[in-house]
C-alpha cells in the first residue's frame, strides 16, 4: 500500500473527512486535497509532518507501513484497539482471501 492510500485509510479509520483532517492538521483543505490527488510523496515535508501528527502517527511509521505487507501495522492504528495474535492472523488470512478474489 502506498503512503497516500495509507493516509486515506487512516483518515477514514479516524472517522474524518478530508476537510476535518485538514483542520486537525492545520493545513488548508485545498492543500490536503491536492496532496491526496498528487500523492503524499510529492508533498512538502512540513505538510506531511502536520498530517501525520494529526493522524497520531510518525513519519517513520508511515514509511514502515508503506514498505511492509503486514496488516498488523495498520491494524495497530485502528481506533486504539489492541489486537491479539490470533486476531491479527485472522486479519492477515482475510486480507489474503480478498487478494485471491482479484484474479477470479
Automatic annotation (TrEMBL):
Annotated HTH cro/C1-type domain residues: 7-62
Gene3D superfamilies reported for this sequence: lambda repressor-like DNA-binding domains (1.10.260.40)
InterPro entries from the UniProt entry: Cro/C1-type_HTH, Lambda_DNA-bd_dom_sf
GO MF annotations, alphabetized: DNA binding
SMART domains recorded: HTH_XRE (SM00530)
Name the record gives this protein: Helix-turn-helix transcriptional regulator
Organism of derivation: Anaeromonas frigoriresistens
The organism's taxonomic lineage, starting at the top: Bacteria, Bacillati, Bacillota, Tissierellia, Tissierellales
